[in-house]
């Protein structure tokens, strides 16, 4: 008589097979299988014809997407789910193509995790040095992907903080400028400066112009590791910055931020922060591993540790806010004494 499998075996198999589900959705998006369904149901043969792909593989992947809930199948016809229709169809306002390409890079990096552990070094470096030498295609994907990923997060932050008394904002390592754009829209009196590396800001300028915000948002070229931030700002944002650096650099950046702010100015630190136990919630804990795969000293720090650094730098009144689902980021705010 065959021995019964342990009750926990299905849990193990589901976790071990998680990469397969990611591969199906990412591969389908990369092959652009959802766009032909954007105008209504189609057969696998019709999707294959529109994408120029062999029908055998298209049908197999569409069936897998149906099993995962990204499409529905009625007879021989497939239809996008609302989720796929909103985010995976080219030309839709919410299309996440650049973010998907970034996720493909992350997928590759995760597969090399043992190599990163053995070498104690990133396997897919994303530091400023790499960005300076990156191809135009990689930079386009990176910056526009930041905009896609940050749009919803920025909107949530704009509802959590009141910058009504602030007139000037500095967005350090602001990337696509999405946070500055959303915050300026939320607070009409606010103007902003996006501080980042020259290759990044070439794209940022285009996004700011496209979003109709060139009259209120400017850019300033610089490296937060080596350059000061200037002075005279009422608010300063560090979004997804500290988690890319080691503790000594984080403290240095916060000291620069303190010097840049006017008395009474506010600092906003946004990022992925696990609980103090560093083993919950799951997503921030996994993200901390990913930071090790792409940055030499990257780590997702608990909010409690960041609040301690802010106190050391001279800030007061620190508070933490967890962004509502589906975000798994947190926001820490504090002020410079008046």
Question: Care to describe what's here?
Answer:
With 338 residues, the protein is α/β, with parallel strands linked by helices. It has two domains: 19-95, Arc Repressor Mutant, subunit A, CATH 1.10.10; 122-335, Vaccinia Virus protein VP39 (Rossmann fold). Helix content is 48%, strand content 17%. It has helices at 9-16, 18-30, 44-51, 55-68, 82-87, 97-111, 113-119, 128-132, 136-160, 178-186, 198-210, 247-260, 282-294, 303-313; strands spanning 42-43, 71-74, 77-80, 168-172, 191-196, 217-221, 233-239, 261-271, 316-322, 330-335. The strands form two sheets. The protein has a seven-stranded mixed sheet, sandwiched between helices. α6 crosses α9 (136-160). The longest helix is centred in the middle third of the chain and has 25 residues, at 136-160.
SS-derived structural category: alpha/beta
Q: What is the third-level CATH name, the topology of the largest domain? A: Rossmann fold
Oligomer: single chain
Give the count of structural domains.
2
**Which strand-content bin applies to the residues?**
15-25%
Percent of residues in helical segments? Answer: 40-55%
Number of helices: 14
Give me the CATH superfamily of the largest domain: Vaccinia Virus protein VP39
Termini Cα gap: 77 Å
Spans of 5+ residues with little confidence (pLDDT < 50)?
none
- How do the helices and strands follow one another from N- to C-terminus? HHEHHEEHHHHHEHEHEEHEHHEE
**Number of separate strands:** 10
What's the arrangement of strands in the largest beta sheet?
6-5-4-7-8-10-9
Mean pLDDT: 94
Query: What is the CATH architecture descriptor of the largest domain?
Result: 3-Layer(aba) Sandwich
How would you sum up the major sheet? 7 strands, mixed
The CATH class name of the largest domain reads Alpha Beta
Radius of gyration (CA) equals: 22 Å
